[in-house]
Amino acid sequence: MILDADRLLSLAVPARSFAYDDRQTLLYALACAADPVADLPFILERDQKVVPSFAQILGFSDDWLEVAQVPVALVVHGGLDIRFDAPFAPSGCAEVETAIVGLGDKGEGRGGIIHQQMRIFQNGSLVATSLSSLFVRGAGGFGGNRGAEPETITVPARPADETFEVATAANQSALFRLLGDRNLLHVDPEFARSAGFPAPILHGAATFGTACLAILKRCARGEPERLSRFAARFTGPVFPGETLVFQLWREPGQFYFRAFAQGRDKPVLDGGLAVVSGG
Question: Which residue in 259, 254, 258 sits closest to 243, CA to CA?
Answer without folding.
Answer: 259
